[in-house]
Amino acid sequence: MTTSPYAAGPDPSAGQPTRRLSRQTDGRPAAPVRIVHLGVGNFFRAHAAWYTERASDAAEWGIAAFTGRSPATARALSAQEGLYTLLVRGPEGAAPEVISSLSAVHPADDLDSLRRYLADPRVSVVTTTVTEAGYRRSSSGGLDTAAEDVVRDVAALRGDPVDGVVTTTPGRLVAGLLARRAAGAGPIAVVPNDNVPDNGEMVARVVRDLARAVDPSLETWVGEHVSFVTTMVDRITPRTTADDRAEVARQLGIDDPETVPTEPFSEWVLSGSFPGGRPDWEAAGARFVDDVGPFEQRKLWLLNGSHSLLAYAGSSLGHETVADAIADPEVRAWVEEWWDAASAHLSLPADEVRDYRSALLARYRNPSIRHLLAQIAADGSQKIPIRAVPVVREELEAGRVSRGALRLVAAWIAHLRGAGAPVTDAHADEVVPLGEGTLDEAARRTLEWLAIDAGPHTEAVLEEVTRLVEGLGARRSS
Ligand code: CS2
């Protein structure tokens, strides 16, 4: 057996001998590539890659993963043959698991490899985790055909369908599908794993729109050969810290800069067909259902909604992590109030909702996960519309000016006005100005931007939101 020599860089194990991961000593042989993935961040490595690792037929299903913006991840993962350690942090301690399911990792601009994989009939699944902004949607939900990079991708593929250089996610998917059609490689499933309602239809629309703009006959081919699967994904996965890397070094004697920390809980609910086959993900607990909708609402409203509330309201009180914020009785009461408002509109049995809520509290309190509120606060422009607005609207339709629901909107306004975690947002140019001016102006502008039309309740909603923002500001300065 050969082991990699300890590579340069800070020694995370404070003096313990460490080596790098290698398939020969630590993992399984690389499985043949049958899945292509776009966006190889921490969440994907804790979730779909882990389900593929745990599938009973894992030896037949290798993943070729492509990075998002940074090619550094491709270099770092390739240097350890695609292996990385998933550090599962539970209340009782941390358990490392070496994941072998990434058979190859490429930088995003390696379009030759992308086209080669998609032209291979053995490849039958494409998964994506690129964040909502990555799908280049316009406000109407279709492809943003006015965006410069989309315009460039369309022109590139019209000019050269075989080698045209594309950069957006829809552009890369369409480039790959052109190669697949040309090779006659057969049907394929596209499986978005982003935390967006109805994500299958979301990706179907942008792919069809871009295909049509490139070549109308491709849109027809996509309709006949590409299945878009809808999913609900869940696993709390913070960013990697030096402490995670040191823990792996302590337990395994391995220095893994690509360590991914995550929680023990995981959920994946999917709906749709896989015409070219798929791994036995059920073996790892994935569920295949007819309608993902109720699971999606339960997760987006109860988990993600309360996460965003913790991120904005909790950080404005000076808390740094989810565990800190949920331990504050005042913040906990706000979360319960949010949950009460959201739960009233879930189409699931009440005892299931109750169990889910208490499981969430346990997940948030997990002392070995350090989930930064600032991480969750990022990109509110994409989160608030899907996490807060549906609940506010449901409450208004039920005739209620709901303090529990409106507090999430108010906390975001307080954040835009400078309270708590700093604003980091792909659409900062658009949303930071929403919070400017007097509080009343900011509240009106934000509600309008969120398309919350309170009708006869408008003044009452504005008053409530203003009072709630003031409440958060007051606590902050005390
Ligand atoms: C979080 C999610 O950062 C965020 O916005 O709410 O990433 C959350 O941790 C995951 O959806 C959990 O599955």
Structural features, described:
Strand 3 and strand 4 form a beta hairpin. This protein is 47% helix and 12% strand. The N terminus is likely disordered. It has 21 helices and 12 strands. It is globular, with a radius of gyration of 23 Å. The strands form 3 sheets. The chain has a 6-stranded parallel β-sheet with strand order 5-2-1-6-7-8, with helices on both faces. Strands 4-3-10 form a 3-stranded mixed β-sheet, with helices on both faces. Strands 9-11-12 form a 3-stranded mixed β-sheet. The chain has 2 domains: 280 residues, NAD(P)-binding Rossmann-like Domain (Rossmann fold); 178 residues, Orthogonal Bundle (N-(1-d-carboxylethyl)-l-norvaline Dehydrogenase, domain 2). With 478 residues, it is of the alpha/beta class. Bound molecules: D-mannonic acid (CS2). The site of D-mannonic acid (CS2) has 9 residues, from helix 11 and helix 15.
- Mean pLDDT, to the nearest integer, reads 95
Q: Give the amount of beta strand, in percent.
A: 5-15%
For the biggest sheet, the summary is: 6 strands, parallel
Radius of gyration: 23 Å
Summed up, the domain count is 2
